[in-house]
Design a protein that fits this description.
Elements lengths: L4 H7 L2 H16 L3 H7 L4 H8 L3 H9 L5 H10 L6 E5 L2 E5 L14
Antiparallel strand pairs: 1-2
Helix pairs in contact: 4-5
Length: 110
């Protein structure tokens, strides 16, 4: 029998709730493109229409490990976001401003 999540959560210790919250936040900060698209309630087909490309192009982008910054920026912008690129060092993060304002069609991707 299915149980309400709130009921289960109420039975969790405060420490376990805190760990679950940390894990949830980490999952929100890190996810592959296809999961991000799905979390935004978009299908490959709907995103392809926004970008004026075929659905197969969206599939290629989501499975690619190397692409132009402009392709990734266009993909993110089509979902309503903005791409930011940061360099991460032990002493902190630095936002790279060189790529701001870049947007191109996804078929330019490598």
């Amino acid at each position: 029998m299915a149980r309400n999540f709130k009921e289960l959560e109420e039975k969790m210790s405060p420490e376990r709730r805190a760990r679950a919250k940390v894990m949830t936040e980490q999952l929100r900060r890190e996810m592959p493109l296809e999961e991000l698209r799905a979390a935004r309630d978009l299908t490959q087909t709907s995103l392809a229409k926004i970008l004026d490309v075929g659905q197969s192009e969206i599939s290629k982008i989501e499975n690619r490990t190397d692409m132009y910054v402009s392709t990734l920026a266009s993909y993110i912008e089509a979902m309503g976001g903005q791409l930011e690129i940061c360099a991460v060092f032990p002493e902190g993060k630095v936002k790279i401003s060189q790529f701001e304002g870049i947007a191109a069609k996804p078929h330019d991707a490598r």
